Amino acid sequence: MLSERREDVLSNVIRSYIKTVQPISSKAIESHLKVRVSPATIRNEMSDLEDHGYITHPHTSAGRIPTDKGYRYFVDYLLPETMLSSQEQEQLQELVGVEPDSGDVFFERVTTAMSELTQEACVGRLQSCPEQLTIDALYITRIEDGTMLVSWVMQSGYVKTVMVPADPIVTSNFCIRLMHVFNDTYRRQTVDMVQTSLAAKMLEETGEVCHLYMTLQSLLGALLQDMQKETKVYRSGLRHILDKPEFIDREKTRRVFSVVEDDEQCREILHQGQVPHSADVQIVIGEENENEDLWDCSVMNSHWYVDGKYVGDISIVSPRRAFYARNKTLLLSMGSIVAKNMNNGRAK
Predict the structure, then answer these.
(1) Which CATH number characterizes residue 155's domain?
(2) Euclidean distance between CA atoms 336 and 320, whole angstroms
(3) DSSP letter assigned to residue 64
(4) Which residue, 47, 59, 77, is CA-closest to 23?
(5) 162 φ, ψ to 5°?
(6) Do 275 and 290 contact (CB within 8 A), yes or no?
(7) In this structure, how many other beta carbons lie within 10 angstroms of the beta carbon of residue 258?
(8) Boundaries of domain holding 160
(9) What's the DSSP call for residue 120?
(10) Tens digits of per-residue pLDDT, 4-31?
(11) Helix axes 207-227, 172-185, angle to 10 degrees
Protein backbone atom coordinates (compact mmCIF):
# COMPACT_ATOMS: atom_id res chain seq x y z
CA MET A 1 0.00 0.00 0.00
CA LEU A 2 1.13 3.54 -0.71
CA SER A 3 1.50 6.17 1.97
CA GLU A 4 -1.37 8.63 2.39
CA ARG A 5 0.62 11.45 0.81
CA ARG A 6 1.68 9.33 -2.12
CA GLU A 7 -1.93 8.23 -2.64
CA ASP A 8 -2.94 11.89 -2.65
CA VAL A 9 -0.35 12.72 -5.30
CA LEU A 10 -1.33 9.73 -7.46
CA SER A 11 -5.05 10.52 -7.15
CA ASN A 12 -4.48 14.12 -8.22
CA VAL A 13 -2.29 13.13 -11.15
CA ILE A 14 -4.97 10.74 -12.39
CA ARG A 15 -7.94 13.04 -11.85
CA SER A 16 -6.12 15.93 -13.52
CA TYR A 17 -5.07 13.79 -16.45
CA ILE A 18 -8.61 12.45 -16.93
CA LYS A 19 -9.87 16.04 -17.25
CA THR A 20 -7.07 17.60 -19.29
CA VAL A 21 -5.56 14.72 -21.31
CA GLN A 22 -2.22 16.45 -20.76
CA PRO A 23 0.86 15.23 -18.87
CA ILE A 24 0.66 16.53 -15.29
CA SER A 25 3.43 18.54 -13.66
CA SER A 26 4.04 18.87 -9.93
CA LYS A 27 2.94 22.51 -10.13
CA ALA A 28 -0.43 21.52 -11.64
CA ILE A 29 -1.45 19.50 -8.59
CA GLU A 30 0.29 21.52 -5.85
CA SER A 31 -2.81 23.48 -4.79
CA HIS A 32 -5.08 20.41 -4.84
CA LEU A 33 -3.24 18.26 -2.30
CA LYS A 34 -4.84 17.64 1.09
CA VAL A 35 -1.69 18.75 2.92
CA ARG A 36 0.51 21.57 1.64
CA VAL A 37 4.05 20.41 0.84
CA SER A 38 6.90 21.94 -1.07
CA PRO A 39 7.20 21.54 -4.86
CA ALA A 40 10.41 19.57 -4.26
CA THR A 41 8.53 17.08 -2.07
CA ILE A 42 5.85 16.65 -4.74
CA ARG A 43 8.51 16.03 -7.38
CA ASN A 44 10.14 13.43 -5.13
CA GLU A 45 6.83 11.66 -4.57
CA MET A 46 6.11 11.68 -8.30
CA SER A 47 9.58 10.31 -8.98
CA ASP A 48 8.98 7.45 -6.50
CA LEU A 49 5.58 6.73 -8.05
CA GLU A 50 7.25 6.54 -11.44
CA ASP A 51 9.99 4.26 -10.12
CA HIS A 52 7.30 1.89 -8.84
CA GLY A 53 5.38 1.91 -12.11
CA TYR A 54 2.29 3.93 -11.13
CA ILE A 55 2.96 6.86 -13.48
CA THR A 56 5.26 7.51 -16.40
CA HIS A 57 6.29 10.41 -18.62
CA PRO A 58 5.74 10.34 -22.38
CA HIS A 59 8.67 11.28 -24.58
CA THR A 60 10.67 14.15 -23.09
CA SER A 61 7.71 15.81 -21.36
CA ALA A 62 8.30 16.91 -17.80
CA GLY A 63 4.73 15.93 -16.89
CA ARG A 64 3.50 12.48 -15.89
CA ILE A 65 0.60 10.32 -17.01
CA PRO A 66 -0.91 7.29 -15.26
CA THR A 67 0.00 3.71 -16.14
CA ASP A 68 -2.30 0.70 -16.01
CA LYS A 69 -0.88 -0.03 -12.56
CA GLY A 70 -1.67 3.51 -11.43
CA TYR A 71 -5.24 3.34 -12.73
CA ARG A 72 -5.68 -0.04 -11.05
CA TYR A 73 -4.59 1.31 -7.68
CA PHE A 74 -6.84 4.33 -8.13
CA VAL A 75 -9.87 2.17 -8.99
CA ASP A 76 -9.26 -0.32 -6.18
CA TYR A 77 -8.38 2.07 -3.34
CA LEU A 78 -8.98 5.72 -4.22
CA LEU A 79 -12.18 5.81 -6.25
CA PRO A 80 -14.50 8.35 -4.61
CA GLU A 81 -18.12 7.43 -4.01
CA THR A 82 -20.48 9.57 -6.05
CA MET A 83 -24.25 9.84 -6.20
CA LEU A 84 -26.51 10.96 -8.99
CA SER A 85 -28.71 13.94 -8.27
CA SER A 86 -32.48 13.46 -8.38
CA GLN A 87 -32.45 15.33 -11.69
CA GLU A 88 -29.87 12.92 -13.12
CA GLN A 89 -31.90 9.96 -11.87
CA GLU A 90 -34.97 11.32 -13.63
CA GLN A 91 -32.93 11.91 -16.78
CA LEU A 92 -31.70 8.32 -16.65
CA GLN A 93 -35.23 6.94 -16.30
CA GLU A 94 -36.49 9.27 -19.03
CA LEU A 95 -33.79 8.16 -21.46
CA VAL A 96 -34.72 4.53 -20.89
CA GLY A 97 -38.41 5.49 -20.99
CA VAL A 98 -39.96 2.19 -22.08
CA GLU A 99 -42.88 0.37 -20.49
CA PRO A 100 -42.02 -2.82 -18.59
CA ASP A 101 -41.78 -6.13 -20.44
CA SER A 102 -40.73 -4.54 -23.71
CA GLY A 103 -37.67 -6.82 -23.96
CA ASP A 104 -35.51 -5.93 -26.95
CA VAL A 105 -36.65 -2.31 -27.07
CA PHE A 106 -35.87 -1.83 -23.40
CA PHE A 107 -32.30 -3.13 -23.61
CA GLU A 108 -31.66 -1.15 -26.76
CA ARG A 109 -32.74 2.00 -24.92
CA VAL A 110 -30.59 1.07 -21.91
CA THR A 111 -27.49 0.84 -24.11
CA THR A 112 -28.31 4.12 -25.86
CA ALA A 113 -28.97 5.90 -22.56
CA MET A 114 -25.64 4.79 -21.08
CA SER A 115 -23.80 5.99 -24.17
CA GLU A 116 -25.55 9.37 -24.08
CA LEU A 117 -24.77 9.91 -20.40
CA THR A 118 -21.16 8.70 -20.46
CA GLN A 119 -20.25 9.94 -23.95
CA GLU A 120 -18.55 6.60 -24.48
CA ALA A 121 -19.12 3.56 -26.66
CA CYS A 122 -21.43 1.04 -24.98
CA VAL A 123 -22.18 -2.59 -25.69
CA GLY A 124 -25.19 -4.37 -24.15
CA ARG A 125 -26.40 -7.94 -24.09
CA LEU A 126 -29.88 -9.27 -23.37
CA GLN A 127 -30.06 -12.81 -22.10
CA SER A 128 -32.99 -14.65 -23.60
CA CYS A 129 -35.60 -15.42 -20.88
CA PRO A 130 -37.83 -17.95 -22.66
CA GLU A 131 -39.61 -18.98 -19.43
CA GLN A 132 -41.48 -15.67 -19.58
CA LEU A 133 -42.58 -15.96 -23.23
CA THR A 134 -46.27 -16.52 -23.95
CA ILE A 135 -46.94 -19.34 -26.41
CA ASP A 136 -49.62 -18.82 -29.05
CA ALA A 137 -49.40 -22.11 -30.97
CA LEU A 138 -47.41 -25.29 -31.50
CA TYR A 139 -46.83 -26.99 -34.88
CA ILE A 140 -45.11 -30.38 -35.28
CA THR A 141 -44.11 -32.26 -38.43
CA ARG A 142 -42.80 -35.85 -38.27
CA ILE A 143 -39.89 -36.28 -40.68
CA GLU A 144 -38.90 -39.62 -42.19
CA ASP A 145 -35.31 -39.42 -40.90
CA GLY A 146 -36.55 -39.97 -37.34
CA THR A 147 -36.80 -36.36 -36.23
CA MET A 148 -39.57 -33.86 -35.54
CA LEU A 149 -39.69 -30.32 -36.88
CA VAL A 150 -41.17 -28.36 -33.97
CA SER A 151 -42.29 -24.72 -34.41
CA TRP A 152 -43.29 -22.58 -31.45
CA VAL A 153 -45.23 -19.42 -32.25
CA MET A 154 -45.08 -16.81 -29.49
CA GLN A 155 -47.76 -14.23 -28.81
CA SER A 156 -45.30 -11.50 -29.81
CA GLY A 157 -45.12 -13.03 -33.32
CA TYR A 158 -41.67 -14.54 -32.73
CA VAL A 159 -41.33 -18.07 -34.17
CA LYS A 160 -38.74 -20.54 -32.91
CA THR A 161 -38.16 -23.77 -34.82
CA VAL A 162 -36.09 -26.66 -33.47
CA MET A 163 -35.26 -30.14 -34.72
CA VAL A 164 -35.87 -32.82 -32.09
CA PRO A 165 -35.14 -36.58 -32.23
CA ALA A 166 -38.36 -38.63 -32.29
CA ASP A 167 -39.03 -41.94 -30.50
CA PRO A 168 -40.36 -44.75 -32.74
CA ILE A 169 -43.73 -44.46 -30.95
CA VAL A 170 -44.05 -40.83 -32.13
CA THR A 171 -45.96 -41.26 -35.39
CA SER A 172 -47.50 -38.57 -37.55
CA ASN A 173 -50.86 -39.21 -35.88
CA PHE A 174 -49.24 -38.89 -32.46
CA CYS A 175 -47.80 -35.53 -33.54
CA ILE A 176 -51.27 -34.37 -34.54
CA ARG A 177 -52.58 -35.36 -31.09
CA LEU A 178 -49.72 -33.44 -29.45
CA MET A 179 -50.64 -30.30 -31.38
CA HIS A 180 -54.35 -30.60 -30.57
CA VAL A 181 -53.76 -31.18 -26.86
CA PHE A 182 -51.31 -28.31 -26.59
CA ASN A 183 -53.20 -25.77 -28.71
CA ASP A 184 -56.54 -26.58 -27.03
CA THR A 185 -55.17 -26.46 -23.48
CA TYR A 186 -52.08 -24.27 -23.22
CA ARG A 187 -52.40 -21.43 -25.70
CA ARG A 188 -51.76 -17.95 -24.30
CA GLN A 189 -49.80 -19.32 -21.32
CA THR A 190 -46.17 -18.64 -20.48
CA VAL A 191 -43.55 -21.36 -20.88
CA ASP A 192 -43.03 -21.73 -17.12
CA MET A 193 -46.81 -22.00 -16.52
CA VAL A 194 -47.04 -24.76 -19.14
CA GLN A 195 -44.08 -26.60 -17.61
CA THR A 196 -45.70 -26.58 -14.19
CA SER A 197 -49.01 -27.87 -15.56
CA LEU A 198 -47.36 -30.63 -17.62
CA ALA A 199 -45.37 -31.83 -14.62
CA ALA A 200 -48.63 -32.20 -12.66
CA LYS A 201 -50.32 -34.02 -15.56
CA MET A 202 -47.43 -36.50 -15.82
CA LEU A 203 -48.05 -37.50 -12.20
CA GLU A 204 -51.80 -37.85 -12.72
CA GLU A 205 -51.90 -39.83 -15.97
CA THR A 206 -50.60 -43.24 -17.06
CA GLY A 207 -49.90 -45.09 -20.30
CA GLU A 208 -50.08 -43.31 -23.64
CA VAL A 209 -51.62 -40.16 -22.18
CA CYS A 210 -48.73 -39.83 -19.73
CA HIS A 211 -46.29 -40.35 -22.61
CA LEU A 212 -48.05 -37.58 -24.51
CA TYR A 213 -47.48 -35.10 -21.68
CA MET A 214 -43.89 -36.33 -21.22
CA THR A 215 -43.25 -35.68 -24.90
CA LEU A 216 -44.63 -32.15 -24.65
CA GLN A 217 -42.46 -31.52 -21.61
CA SER A 218 -39.44 -32.82 -23.53
CA LEU A 219 -40.23 -30.51 -26.46
CA LEU A 220 -40.44 -27.55 -24.10
CA GLY A 221 -37.10 -28.53 -22.61
CA ALA A 222 -35.53 -28.58 -26.08
CA LEU A 223 -36.98 -25.11 -26.74
CA LEU A 224 -35.55 -23.72 -23.49
CA GLN A 225 -32.12 -25.26 -24.06
CA ASP A 226 -31.92 -23.84 -27.56
CA MET A 227 -33.15 -20.34 -26.67
CA GLN A 228 -30.99 -19.95 -23.58
CA LYS A 229 -27.96 -20.03 -25.87
CA GLU A 230 -29.21 -16.94 -27.65
CA THR A 231 -28.05 -13.51 -26.63
CA LYS A 232 -28.62 -10.37 -28.63
CA VAL A 233 -25.88 -7.73 -28.72
CA TYR A 234 -26.66 -4.00 -28.77
CA ARG A 235 -24.24 -1.17 -29.56
CA SER A 236 -24.46 2.57 -29.17
CA GLY A 237 -22.12 5.54 -29.36
CA LEU A 238 -19.29 3.99 -31.36
CA ARG A 239 -18.75 7.48 -32.80
CA HIS A 240 -17.49 8.58 -29.36
CA ILE A 241 -14.37 6.47 -29.93
CA LEU A 242 -13.46 8.79 -32.80
CA ASP A 243 -13.75 11.85 -30.52
CA LYS A 244 -11.06 10.68 -28.11
CA PRO A 245 -7.53 12.09 -28.56
CA GLU A 246 -6.14 8.67 -27.61
CA PHE A 247 -7.57 7.28 -30.84
CA ILE A 248 -6.20 9.76 -33.34
CA ASP A 249 -3.97 6.89 -34.47
CA ARG A 250 -6.01 5.14 -37.16
CA GLU A 251 -4.55 1.72 -36.38
CA LYS A 252 -5.61 1.96 -32.73
CA THR A 253 -9.09 2.98 -33.82
CA ARG A 254 -9.31 0.15 -36.34
CA ARG A 255 -8.36 -2.41 -33.66
CA VAL A 256 -11.03 -1.19 -31.26
CA PHE A 257 -13.72 -1.08 -33.94
CA SER A 258 -12.80 -4.59 -35.08
CA VAL A 259 -13.81 -5.80 -31.62
CA VAL A 260 -16.92 -3.75 -30.84
CA GLU A 261 -18.45 -4.36 -34.27
CA ASP A 262 -18.18 -8.15 -33.92
CA ASP A 263 -20.97 -9.91 -31.95
CA GLU A 264 -18.86 -12.80 -30.69
CA GLN A 265 -16.03 -10.55 -29.52
CA CYS A 266 -18.58 -8.28 -27.83
CA ARG A 267 -19.90 -11.27 -25.89
CA GLU A 268 -16.34 -11.99 -24.76
CA ILE A 269 -15.95 -8.37 -23.60
CA LEU A 270 -19.17 -8.60 -21.61
CA HIS A 271 -18.11 -11.89 -20.04
CA GLN A 272 -14.82 -10.48 -18.74
CA GLY A 273 -14.62 -10.43 -14.96
CA GLN A 274 -18.16 -11.74 -14.52
CA VAL A 275 -18.77 -12.84 -10.94
CA PRO A 276 -21.92 -15.02 -10.67
CA HIS A 277 -24.80 -13.21 -8.91
CA SER A 278 -22.65 -10.12 -8.25
CA ALA A 279 -24.21 -6.74 -8.98
CA ASP A 280 -20.88 -4.93 -8.57
CA VAL A 281 -19.13 -3.26 -11.50
CA GLN A 282 -16.05 -5.02 -12.88
CA ILE A 283 -13.34 -2.79 -14.34
CA VAL A 284 -10.72 -4.12 -16.75
CA ILE A 285 -7.89 -1.72 -17.56
CA GLY A 286 -5.49 -1.66 -20.51
CA GLU A 287 -3.43 -4.82 -20.78
CA GLU A 288 -5.67 -6.58 -18.27
CA ASN A 289 -8.03 -7.04 -21.24
CA GLU A 290 -7.93 -10.55 -22.65
CA ASN A 291 -8.15 -9.15 -26.18
CA GLU A 292 -4.96 -7.36 -27.26
CA ASP A 293 -6.96 -5.05 -29.53
CA LEU A 294 -8.39 -3.46 -26.36
CA TRP A 295 -5.09 -2.81 -24.60
CA ASP A 296 -5.57 0.93 -25.13
CA CYS A 297 -9.01 0.76 -23.49
CA SER A 298 -10.76 0.36 -20.19
CA VAL A 299 -13.87 -1.79 -20.06
CA MET A 300 -16.42 -1.34 -17.27
CA ASN A 301 -18.87 -4.23 -17.02
CA SER A 302 -22.14 -4.40 -15.11
CA HIS A 303 -23.93 -7.75 -14.93
CA TRP A 304 -27.59 -7.73 -13.97
CA TYR A 305 -29.55 -10.31 -12.03
CA VAL A 306 -33.26 -10.29 -11.18
CA ASP A 307 -34.52 -12.72 -8.54
CA GLY A 308 -31.17 -14.51 -8.78
CA LYS A 309 -31.44 -14.97 -12.57
CA TYR A 310 -29.00 -13.41 -14.97
CA VAL A 311 -30.89 -11.15 -17.41
CA GLY A 312 -28.21 -9.17 -19.23
CA ASP A 313 -25.28 -6.83 -18.93
CA ILE A 314 -23.62 -3.77 -20.38
CA SER A 315 -20.05 -2.60 -20.99
CA ILE A 316 -18.64 0.89 -21.30
CA VAL A 317 -15.66 0.82 -23.67
CA SER A 318 -13.48 3.90 -23.21
CA PRO A 319 -9.85 4.97 -23.27
CA ARG A 320 -7.93 4.00 -20.14
CA ARG A 321 -8.49 7.64 -19.20
CA ALA A 322 -12.07 7.27 -18.02
CA PHE A 323 -14.41 8.93 -15.54
CA TYR A 324 -14.41 5.79 -13.43
CA ALA A 325 -16.35 7.06 -10.41
CA ARG A 326 -19.22 8.63 -12.35
CA ASN A 327 -19.46 5.78 -14.84
CA LYS A 328 -19.57 3.23 -12.04
CA THR A 329 -22.40 5.16 -10.35
CA LEU A 330 -24.31 5.32 -13.64
CA LEU A 331 -23.94 1.58 -14.15
CA LEU A 332 -25.16 0.78 -10.64
CA SER A 333 -28.10 3.16 -11.01
CA MET A 334 -29.00 1.65 -14.36
CA GLY A 335 -28.87 -1.79 -12.75
CA SER A 336 -31.55 -0.68 -10.29
CA ILE A 337 -33.73 0.58 -13.17
CA VAL A 338 -33.28 -2.71 -15.04
CA ALA A 339 -34.28 -4.74 -11.97
CA LYS A 340 -37.34 -2.56 -11.38
CA ASN A 341 -38.38 -2.76 -15.02
CA MET A 342 -37.98 -6.53 -15.21
CA ASN A 343 -39.85 -7.08 -11.94
CA ASN A 344 -42.69 -4.81 -13.04
CA GLY A 345 -42.90 -6.66 -16.32
CA ARG A 346 -43.25 -10.00 -14.53
CA ALA A 347 -45.88 -8.62 -12.19
CA LYS A 348 -48.16 -7.67 -15.07
Answers:
(1) 3.30.390.60
(2) 26
(3) B
(4) 59
(5) -130, 150
(6) no
(7) 12
(8) 131-227
(9) S
(10) 999 999 999 999 999 999 999 999 999 8
(11) 80
